[in-house]
Specification:
Blueprint lengths: L2 E3 L5 H10 L16 H6 L1 H6 L5 E4 L3 E8 L2 H19 L9 H10 L6 H4 L4 E7 L8 H15 L4 E6 L6 H7 L3 E5 L4 E6 L2
Parallel strand pairs: 4-5
Antiparallel strand pairs: 1-2, 2-3, 3-4, 5-7, 6-7
Pfam family, one: Acetyltransf_1
Protein name: N-acetyltransferase domain-containing protein
Organism: Actinocorallia longicatena
Length: 196
Amino acid sequence: MSLRKFRLDDEHAVYDICLRTGRAGADATDLYEDPRLIGHVYAGPYLRFAPQFATVVDEGQVLGYVLAAPDTREFEARCEEEWWPALRKKYPNPPELLTPDQRLMRVIHSPHRTPEGLVGDYPSHLHIDLLPAAQGRGHGRTLINRLEDELRDAGSPGVHLGFDPANTAAAPFYTKLGFHEAARDEWVVWMAKSLV
C-alpha cells in the first residue's frame, strides 16, 4: 500500500481528485466551468494551513487523499483571514445560484460553519476522497486510521466529517470505522468519532 505524506507537487492531483469525486463521490468534471473551483473550496485550504495532516495514495499517480484540520474553529478563522479574501476578489458573490459554479462562489463568500455541537467533543475534522481505482482496497480505512493516530498525537479528543446525503455509500463505510451520525440537514450528514 503506497501511502505517503502530501508534497507541494501533489496539489494539482489533489484538486483533480476533488473534482472527480465532487458529485456525491462521483465525477463532477462536467458540472463545473472552472475545474479548480471545487478544489479551492474543499481541498486548497487544508494543503496550505495543515499540510502535516495530508496524506495521499500514490501508486505511480495520486489516486486519493485524506486532509484534516486538528482545530476546526481555528481553521475556519484562518480561512476567513488568509484564504477566502483572495478568492472573493477572483470570484464575485453571485446574485443567483443557478449553476454549480455559482453555488461554490457563494460558499467562498458565505462559508459554512460547523455546527457548534460538534466542535466541543470533536474539534478536528477530515476530508477524504478516493478515485474508483483506489476504492475497495483498504486505502480509505488505512488513511483514516493513520490520520486518527496523528490527530490523537496532536491532542485531539475527537474528529468529525461531513458528506452529501446523496452519497449513500458513505454512512456505512464510516460506521464500520466507528463513526456515528451526529447531525444532519438537507445539505450535509455529519458523523463523528471519539479519539480518547
